[in-house]
User: Fold these one by one.
Assistant:
Number 1:
Amino acid sequence: MPSLKMFSAILMIPLMWTLVSGETPIRQCAYESYPLPLMVQIDDCNSSPCDLLKGSEAKIDIQFVATRNTMKALTAEVHLTSLGVTIPYDLESSRGTVCSNLLHGAYCPLDAGEDVTYQLLLPVGNSQPEVPTRLEVRLLDSDNDNRVVACFLADTRVKKPSST
C-alpha cells in the first residue's frame, strides 16, 4: 500500500501548488499592525500588476478572519494612488457593506476567528487614467471605532479593454 500513498501525495502536491499560486499578490498596508487578509483574488490575476479594465467591474474576493464576537457592521474603504496622489474611492453603500456581500452562505454577526470571504465589485470608470495604480482596501469594524479588521495593497493598472 505504500505505493498508493506515494501516488496520492504526488498528485496532491501540484493541486496544492495550483490552489496556493492562484492568489493575487498583495502587500502589507503602511501600518504593519493591520492584519493582512488570508487571501485576495482580483479577477483572474495571479501576478502584479493586475489589470483593471475601463468600463467594467473588478471582482475582488477578500478572505479574512473576524477579530471579535458579534461583528455585524463592517465596511470597506478603498484608496487609489496614482502618480504619487492618493484619493479615496467613493463606494456605493451597497458595495461597501461587507455583511451583505459575504460569499459561501456566510452572514453577520460574525464571531471571533470566523473565516469568511467578502466580494467587492469595484467599478472602473471610463475616465480613469491609464496609469499604474496602487489599490488599498481596508475592512473596518464600524461598531468598534472603525478598527481595521484586514488591510492590503495591490499593484494594478487601468487599461482599455482589448477589442476582439
Note: The CA atoms of residues 65 and 129 lie 34 Å apart.
Number 2:
Amino acid sequence: MGKWKPVKASGSGPPISHLFFANDLILFAKANCAQARIIKKCLDAFCNLSGQEVSFQKSMLYCSPNTSKKMARKISRICGSALTDNLGKYLGMPLIHSTVTKKTYRPIVEKVQSKLVGWKSKTLNFVGRLTLVQAVTSTIPIYAMQTAKLPVATCDSLDKLSRDFLLGDCDEKKKVHLINWDRICKPKGWWFGIEESYSHEPSYVGQNQRENVSK
C-alpha cells in the first residue's frame, strides 16, 4: 500500500497525520497522487472492516497554496472530494489558512456589537451600562482567547465598543469623558474593574496551555 507521509506545522514540530474529535476527522498528508491513493485505500479498508461508509461527496479537500492547481485537481479526483480554499469553522473557531489579520476575528467584534446595539445607552444609568459591558465584552471573546492570541486591532475594536457604550458615545454625538479610560480599567476596589482585551488575553491562553499539559 505504501507509507503514509504526515506533515509538520514547523520544521521541529511533530508529524501530524490526523486530528479526530467526535464525528469529525481531518487527515493530513503530502500533496501528491501517491499519498492521495494511500489515504483513499486506508479509508476504503476501514469501511470494509467496520461496515461504515465515508461520505466523500460531503467531505472537503484543501491543498496548500504551494500545490499547483493541476496537482490539486488530480488529488481531488482520486479522493472523490471537492476542492475548497476555505474549510470554514471547527468547534466555532475559524480554521486559519493564511496570515491572521483583524478580518479573521471580525465576527467576534460584530457579535459584541450586536449585543450592545440591542440596548440603548441612554436608557441605562452608568452602573447598568458598566454591568452590561462586563457581562458582554468580558465573556464573548473568552472562547477564542483560550486557543488563539487575538490581533491587537481586534482587541482595540472590542475596547472601543465597550468604551463608547459605557461613556454614552455614539456616531452622531460624542460626549465629554469625565473619567479617563485607563482609570476605568484599573482593578476593582480602586476603580471599576474593566479589563482591556489585550491585557487579560495571554492569561487565558496560558491557562489553557497549562491545563492541556497537565492532562
Note: The CA atoms of residues 124 and 130 lie 9 Å apart.
